[in-house]
Protein backbone atom coordinates (compact mmCIF):
# COMPACT_ATOMS: atom_id res chain seq x y z
CA UNK A 1 0.00 0.00 0.00
CA UNK A 2 1.24 3.47 -0.79
CA UNK A 3 2.06 6.02 1.87
CA UNK A 4 -0.79 8.31 0.70
CA UNK A 5 -3.28 5.42 0.98
CA UNK A 6 -2.24 4.85 4.59
CA UNK A 7 -2.50 8.56 5.35
CA UNK A 8 -5.98 8.72 3.79
CA UNK A 9 -7.20 5.76 5.88
CA UNK A 10 -5.72 7.32 9.01
CA UNK A 11 -7.38 10.64 8.21
CA UNK A 12 -10.76 8.97 7.66
CA UNK A 13 -10.41 7.06 10.94
CA UNK A 14 -9.50 10.27 12.79
CA UNK A 15 -12.50 12.12 11.34
CA UNK A 16 -14.84 9.26 12.24
CA UNK A 17 -13.50 9.25 15.80
CA UNK A 18 -13.93 13.03 16.08
CA UNK A 19 -17.56 12.76 14.90
CA UNK A 20 -18.31 10.01 17.45
CA UNK A 21 -16.75 12.06 20.26
CA UNK A 22 -18.76 15.12 19.22
CA UNK A 23 -21.99 13.08 19.30
CA UNK A 24 -21.20 11.78 22.78
CA UNK A 25 -20.46 15.31 23.98
CA UNK A 26 -23.78 16.53 22.58
CA UNK A 27 -25.64 13.76 24.37
CA UNK A 28 -23.90 14.57 27.64
CA UNK A 29 -24.50 18.31 27.23
CA UNK A 30 -28.30 18.01 27.58
CA UNK A 31 -29.46 19.19 30.99
CA UNK A 32 -32.80 17.48 31.67
CA UNK A 33 -34.87 20.13 33.39
CA UNK A 34 -38.64 19.79 33.37
CA UNK A 35 -38.94 23.35 34.70
CA UNK A 36 -37.65 24.68 31.37
CA UNK A 37 -40.91 23.44 29.85
CA UNK A 38 -43.01 25.79 32.03
CA UNK A 39 -43.75 28.05 29.01
CA UNK A 40 -45.43 25.00 27.41
CA UNK A 41 -47.78 24.23 30.30
CA UNK A 42 -50.66 26.44 29.04
CA UNK A 43 -50.75 24.47 25.76
CA UNK A 44 -50.52 21.13 27.56
CA UNK A 45 -53.46 22.09 29.76
CA UNK A 46 -55.44 23.79 26.96
CA UNK A 47 -54.66 22.23 23.54
CA UNK A 48 -56.62 24.96 21.74
CA UNK A 49 -53.76 27.39 22.48
CA UNK A 50 -50.71 27.80 20.24
CA UNK A 51 -47.20 27.31 21.65
CA UNK A 52 -44.84 30.26 21.93
CA UNK A 53 -41.43 30.31 20.26
CA UNK A 54 -39.83 29.98 23.72
CA UNK A 55 -41.91 26.88 24.41
CA UNK A 56 -40.89 25.22 21.13
CA UNK A 57 -37.22 26.11 21.61
CA UNK A 58 -37.23 24.61 25.09
CA UNK A 59 -39.21 21.57 23.95
CA UNK A 60 -36.67 20.82 21.22
CA UNK A 61 -33.81 21.24 23.70
CA UNK A 62 -35.46 18.83 26.15
CA UNK A 63 -36.40 16.23 23.50
CA UNK A 64 -33.59 13.82 24.55
CA UNK A 65 -35.08 13.88 28.08
CA UNK A 66 -38.67 12.89 27.21
CA UNK A 67 -38.22 9.24 28.23
CA UNK A 68 -36.81 10.32 31.58
CA UNK A 69 -39.85 12.55 32.12
CA UNK A 70 -42.28 9.80 31.04
CA UNK A 71 -40.79 7.36 33.54
CA UNK A 72 -41.34 9.83 36.38
CA UNK A 73 -44.87 9.32 37.75
CA UNK A 74 -45.13 13.05 38.55
CA UNK A 75 -44.80 14.02 34.88
CA UNK A 76 -46.06 10.99 32.92
CA UNK A 77 -49.64 12.25 32.70
CA UNK A 78 -48.54 15.58 31.28
CA UNK A 79 -46.06 14.11 28.79
CA UNK A 80 -48.63 11.62 27.45
CA UNK A 81 -51.57 14.07 27.43
CA UNK A 82 -53.45 15.15 24.27
CA UNK A 83 -52.10 18.67 24.82
CA UNK A 84 -48.52 17.39 24.84
CA UNK A 85 -49.10 15.44 21.62
CA UNK A 86 -50.50 18.58 19.94
CA UNK A 87 -47.58 20.58 21.29
CA UNK A 88 -45.04 18.12 19.88
CA UNK A 89 -46.70 18.28 16.47
CA UNK A 90 -46.88 22.10 16.52
CA UNK A 91 -43.19 22.38 17.45
CA UNK A 92 -42.04 19.70 15.01
CA UNK A 93 -40.86 17.31 17.71
CA UNK A 94 -41.18 13.55 17.29
CA UNK A 95 -43.12 11.64 19.97
CA UNK A 96 -40.72 9.76 22.24
CA UNK A 97 -40.02 6.08 21.65
CA UNK A 98 -39.09 4.79 25.09
CA UNK A 99 -38.22 1.22 25.94
From TrEMBL:
<keyword id="KW-0813">Transport</keyword>
<dbReference type="InterPro" id="IPR033872">
    <property type="entry name" value="nsLTP2"/>
</dbReference>
<dbReference type="GO" id="GO:0006869">
    <property type="term" value="P:lipid transport"/>
</dbReference>
<dbReference type="InterPro" id="IPR016140">
    <property type="entry name" value="Bifunc_inhib/LTP/seed_store"/>
</dbReference>
<dbReference type="GO" id="GO:0008289">
    <property type="term" value="F:lipid binding"/>
</dbReference>
<feature type="signal peptide">
    <location>
        <begin position="1"/>
        <end position="29"/>
    </location>
</feature>
<keyword id="KW-0446">Lipid-binding</keyword>
<dbReference type="Pfam" id="PF00234">
    <property type="entry name" value="Tryp_alpha_amyl"/>
</dbReference>
<feature type="domain" description="Bifunctional inhibitor/plant lipid transfer protein/seed storage helical">
    <location>
        <begin position="34"/>
        <end position="98"/>
    </location>
</feature>
<protein>
    <recommendedName>
        <fullName>Bifunctional inhibitor/plant lipid transfer protein/seed storage helical domain-containing protein</fullName>
    </recommendedName>
</protein>
<keyword id="KW-0732">Signal</keyword>
<dbReference type="InterPro" id="IPR036312">
    <property type="entry name" value="Bifun_inhib/LTP/seed_sf"/>
</dbReference>
